[in-house]
Amino acid sequence: MPEPAVPPSPEPASGAGSGQAAVLVEGLERTYKGGLKAVDGVNLVVEPGEIYGFLGPNGAGKSTTVRILTTLLRPTGGRALVAGYDVVKQAPEVRRNIGVALQEAALDPLMTGRELLQLQGALHGLRRDEARERAEELLERVDLVEAADRRLQTYSGGMTRRLDLAMALVHRPTVLFLDEPTTGLDPVSRNALWREVKALNEEGTTVFLTTQYLEEAEQLADRVGIIDRGHIVAEGTPDELKKLVGDPALMVKLIDPAQHDEACRVLAAHGEVSDRSDGSLKVRSPLGARAIAPIVRSLDEARVEVDAVELEEVSLDDVFLAVTGHPAEEAEGEPE
Q: Where are the beta strands (DSSP E) in 115-270?
């Protein structure tokens, strides 16, 4: 199928082409009125064909960074290249090469899914027959064929997110920006969206994914950058970031709280022991899940009655606490 008809582009910045980073950010800054720095010297590189997870709580600077990278907001310092083009000097070229699915999609609720996709195709320069063909391809891809002629106001949250993803793919972008794509979705819709993102990436699409959920980054991302108060505070693979937290933790829930002290004595042989707010005990052990059987056996031999022993998954809060010294609470300051 022919590519969209667009005017000739200027030469890409800084030698864009084969081997060029999909996203290159150097010293990026955004200062708002009153001196608030929502983004403060961010540096990052996303390689072609990579899924890059961008993690942080609300207010950390994620949204501002994504707005800059997608040409919706101008930086006040530093520079950013996307698909080899400067987001300020070559904004039209950037927009031709990216797809964007924001958390709050501004879609007309009175239009049908098919109409919206065909309109998107027209906006990207596709001829009418090309736009119609591309819409059919994408409706099938995101499993919305049966709902194609229903008005958007009848769509569920998961259906709307899938349609928004399809609209971001109309012009076959090389870099896809997904802003918290699964927020508010049920597990079935979330898993379906994850599968589609993985499939797109396997076909060669570079994905820049913002999320608040470490689980989502673990499922999808090759590498992850954590932003806090406008700064990148950690970067690496999901496994590398989890190791920053320390040894895996296990939760031990006792049947009789009166056996707390005896349980602590027994558990101390297996790792660092601490109390949890819900009355259970936390044990950090390098063995992780493999420590469950020995712990249960030791407690049984000491006649300590146990209700449950479970592996406690590392959370975004755990990682944030490890790298910043404070929990991943919502920050105040990044403008909506």
A: 175-179, 206-211, 223-228, 231-236, 249-254
